[in-house]
């Protein structure tokens, strides 16, 4: 059956199934990206010595933050592309805007999706809530590691180890 907008009407179970596949994809991309960020951070932290400059530590943190933001932007782009390519939203910019609005739970509503696909929005929002929480926990862990390094450096711990 074809709806008035020309798109096939597959039903709510199909819509939810496609949405859940997108959700799994978002979370998979996010998890893979977080592992890469963590690995890079741990290598960078291990290369620091007690004599390393604070600017070097700040640059490591800036790289982590930029990497985390890039992961979020990439995964939302990956979700917006099929919405655009399938014709649900007619151009990539509007599709990306819609996905970002849902993902961040802002959802201004100025770009809408056909009614038969309206469950996509809340499913995308679930992905955003999950991944933003996960990103927050990674930032807490990284800041804890940097704080521990600063504390050790201030107390003289580790000054005798070669780097």
What's the arrangement of secondary structure elements?
Blueprint: H1 12-46, H2 54-85, H3 92-103, H4 120-155
Helix pairs in contact: 1-2, 1-4, 2-3, 2-4, 3-4
Description:
- This protein is mainly α and 163 residues long.
- It has one domain.
- It has helices at residues 12-46, 54-85, 92-103, 120-155.
- 20% of the residues are buried.
- The mean pLDDT is 88.
How much helicity do the residues have?
over 70%
* Helix-and-strand structural type: mainly alpha
Would you tell me the overall average pLDDT? 88
- Unreliable residue runs: none
Please report the number of helical segments.
4
**Span of the ends, CA to CA:** 68 Å
Quaternary organisation: single chain
Proportion of β residues? Answer: under 5%
Q: What integer value in Å does the Rg equal?
A: 21 Å
């Amino acid at each position: 059956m074809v709806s008035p907008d020309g798109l096939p009407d597959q039903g709510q179970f199909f819509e939810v199934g496609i949405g859940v596949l997108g959700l799994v994809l978002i979370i998979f991309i996010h998890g893979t990206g977080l592992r890469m960020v963590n690995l890079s951070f741990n290598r960078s932290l291990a290369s620091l010595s007690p004599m390393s400059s604070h600017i070097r530590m700040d640059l490591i943190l800036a790289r982590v933050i930029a990497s985390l933001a890039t992961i979020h932007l990439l995964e939302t782009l990956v979700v917006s592309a099929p919405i655009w390519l399938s014709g649900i939203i007619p151009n990539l910019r509007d599709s990306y805007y819609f996905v970002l609005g849902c993902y961040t739970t802002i959802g201004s509503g100025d770009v809408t999706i056909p009614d038969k696909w309206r469950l996509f929005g809340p499913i995308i929002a679930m992905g955003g809530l999950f991944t933003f929480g996960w990103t927050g926990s990674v930032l807490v862990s990284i800041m804890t590691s940097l704080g521990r390094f600063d504390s050790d450096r201030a107390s003289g711990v580790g000054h005798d180890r070669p780097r």
